[in-house]
Amino acid sequence: MFNRKRPCKTCPFRTGGQAVRGLHPARAEKIADTLLSGGSFTCHDDLDAPESKRNHCVGAMLILEKLEQPNQMMRIAERMGFYDRDQITGHDEVFDDFDEWMAVQEEGDRCDDV
Fold it and tell me: Does a structural domain hold residue 58?
């Protein structure tokens, strides 16, 4: 669940590159609210993998770490030795908070499958 160490190239939380954009504002807000209230978000590269093989989105984890609000799964995994915040990279590749991220979702083609 915590095998990835860097945001994938299409990570919606990346500030540039091939990041997924165009989420409906209500969907973007729901994702942000879910993450801020302790929920998790699966990496896009793993959506077709069996549920037991899916990883948590590194971009989402990085924003949560920047906000000093790791979700419950991150905290549990860290205590059990499955997650080490110092091993994930790409801090400069993702938004600093979810408000910045939601503000750019209108850019790009509409994408409601995230």
Answer: yes
